[in-house]
Amino acid sequence: MRKILILLALVSILTGCVTMAKEHESYSWTKHRIIAHAAGGIKGKDYTNSEEAFINSYNNGYKLIEVDLSLTSDGKLVARHGWNEPYGQDFNADSKALTYKEFMGLPYYKEYTPMDLNKVLNLLKEHPEVYILLDGKVSSAEDTEELYEKVGEAIEEIDEAIIHRLIPQMYYKEDLDIIRSYGFHDVMYIVGREQYSGKSIAAFCIENDIKAVGLSWIRASETLIEVLSKHGIVSYIYTINDPAEMYSYFEIGVHGFYTDYIMPDEIEDTH
């Protein structure tokens, strides 16, 4: 009997290891087609990146949630879509960053809670089926290096299983080495800030094991989508809030979308 119990325990452990391997398989998150943009819209408000927006997106079935990251004037990482617009916070936006204390003390629309990166990481711990796409608000590879140095500090003590569920978005080819130097593998390559063709994107992605590309709807041509799909590279279009428009993109091979308000079960049940 003891031998049987030991055997069953070993089988259980091995099964658990296989399950974890599948969960963390490279780019397994792309099975989900809908991404909550800027933590998702809430009560008609978007771009808040707030705690309530995140929880609302989770409760609505999103498994992919994008969170914007910006640096405060005193060098802290917070969940914010840059500093050019107030997005419901009570300050005169002029591209000048707030201090960390100022930002955290200004609820969006007087009711939604601002988040820093540590809060985002805690939410990831609390919701183990969710992946977070990190959208660093950068304008150069140098900015990326500064931002990810802070990200690296924040994740030093974080369990590797959680880090696997952080998906950096990259805008410049030079970003890749910076991002991967902090232990990340999967990325979403946002195309458009550098010169490109379908062939050049595919070649870069194949060479660097990148299997997901983000495109603005303006750039989402059938030819480009076809070239990417041919090489097993999935495309996500941003930001679409009309189901009919989404279906028109599905017809040319687009894989998924960033959205503020479309619920995942409205789309994923049929594709």
Automatic annotation (TrEMBL):
Keyword entries, A-Z: Hydrolase, Lipid metabolism, Membrane, Signal, Transmembrane, Transmembrane helix
InterPro entries: GDPD-Related, GP_PDE_dom, PLC-like_Pdiesterase_TIM-brl
Matches recorded under Gene3D superfamilies: Phosphatidylinositol (PI) phosphodiesterase
GO biological process entries: glycerophospholipid catabolic process
Sequence ranges assigned to domain GP-PDE in this UniProt record: 32-271
PROSITE patterns (alphabetical): GP_PDE (PS51704), PROKAR_LIPOPROTEIN (PS51257)
Record carries keyword tRNA processing: no
A Pfam family assignment: GDPD
Subcellular location: Membrane
Signal peptide: 1-21
CDD domains attached to this UniProt entry: PI-PLCc_GDPD_SF_unchar1 (cd08583)
One example GO MF annotation: phosphoric diester hydrolase activity
Superkingdom of origin organism: Bacteria
GO cellular component: cytoplasm; membrane
Family in the record: Belongs to the glycerophosphoryl diester phosphodiesterase family.
Protein name per Swiss-Prot or TrEMBL: GP-PDE domain-containing protein
Provenance organism: Jeotgalibacillus soli
